[in-house]
Amino acid sequence: MATRTAILYTGSLLSSAFGGLVGAGIEYGLDGARGLYSWQWLFLIEGTVTVVVSLGSIFVLPDFPSNTAWLTAEERALAIHRLHAHSGTVDEERGPLLEGLKMAALDYKVWLLTLIVILKTSAGAVTQFIPTLVNTFHFSRVQTLLMTAPPFIFAAIVALVVSVSSDKLGERCLHLIVPLAFALIGFIIAAITESLAPRYFSLFLALGGVYGCYDITYAWMSSTIPRPIEKRSSAFAIANMVGNIAQVYSPYMYPKSSGPRYLPAMIANSGFVIVSIVCCAILYLCLRRENEILEAAQMHGQDEEDARSDVSKSRSQERVVSVEAMDSGFRYML
Q1: Pair 137, 196: CB distance under 8 Å
Q2: How confident is the model at residue 317 (pLDDT cuts 50, 70, 90)?
Q3: pLDDT: is 284 or 129 the higher one?
Q4: C-alpha span between 305 and 96 (Å, rounded)
Q5: What distance in Å separates the CA atoms of residue 124 and residue 211, rounded to the nearest whole number?
Q6: Computed over its alpha carbons, how large is the radius of gyration of the chain?
Q7: Cα 328–329–330 angle (5° rounding)?
Q8: Which residues of 102-136 are buried (b: 16+ CB within 10 A; e: fewer)?
């Protein structure tokens, strides 16, 4: 799950990297061509490619295993079996959407993960100002655009490595905390020095740390809120909606008056990362306790009513882990 999510999100990182390279090329060769400024050419070229690829993806992206037209019957059965092994059971029947939203809104795990998302998005907003930060090195516009690419490429590589490791080891918490710790070091370096080399190095640590584990959060949410489908979908919607609130206030963290160190922003980003690490640790402890209850329920052969009672006492939402899932050995991924 983390690897697939990483592939999706590295697309965004690589677009930022190659966007800088494309922008440098357009700035150098197309500015003023046919009466258009370089930024107009950038919008036309990137916008056209995006629209064409988006229309084509409608016919390629799958919906659910049971109704994906380009899968064979055997492949559908295998996909459903994998889902069953992952979450203990499979929900093919759709329930009320509002009920799923209510279940997600009342689950503390959803809000812990959402808090991690908004904090990391707040710290990750530094990407919007990397050209501004690199510009403090006093290079030309083309050189500035070229120098924005390597940190994004590095972050994409880190994201893939961390995600593959997380999936192979079946672990989420440390694969979030360790990269965030490196991001914290990056923000601290950026805050305390104005030297070119250390500040540029700090961008690699900050981007590699924040975005190197960004997809792990969503993979952890998927395994923590495995069912029903309506609840899981609502959980992702809540995380994305609340997380993007960071885009409202983050631009005001980098006023020109605070350059070139942007000390207030770097201090704030450090705080965001620290609180994210604390939230990861809290969620880890909560899920470990949930697993202990599920383990005890399975070992002692409790009936359905007793098992649900124990899960309720641990503040799990009803149907997050059904008795079927207990019987199949479902455990929350830590």
Answers
A1: yes
A2: very low
A3: 284
A4: 24
A5: 7
A6: 23
A7: 100
A8: ebbeebebbbbbbbbbbbbbbbbbbbebbeebbbe
> CA-to-CA distance for 115 and 279, rounded, in angstroms?
8
What CA–CA distance (Å, rounded) separates 258 from 280?
31
- Sign of the CA dihedral 62, 68, 70, 72? positive
Confidence of residue 306 (pLDDT cuts 50, 70, 90): low
pTM greater than the 0.85 cutoff:
no
Distance from C-alpha of 51 to C-alpha of 44, rounded to nearest angstrom: 11
Distances (CA, A) of 321 to 39, 60, 145, 254, 284: 51, 32, 49, 44, 17
What class is the 2-59+100-327 domain?
mainly alpha
Residue closest to 260 by CA, chosen among 136, 141, 145, 143: 136
Instruction: Look up residue 50 and give its amino acid.
Output: T
Q: What is the pLDDT of residues 119-172, one digit of tens each?
A: 999 999 888 777 777 777 777 777 777 888 899 999 999 999 999 999 999 999
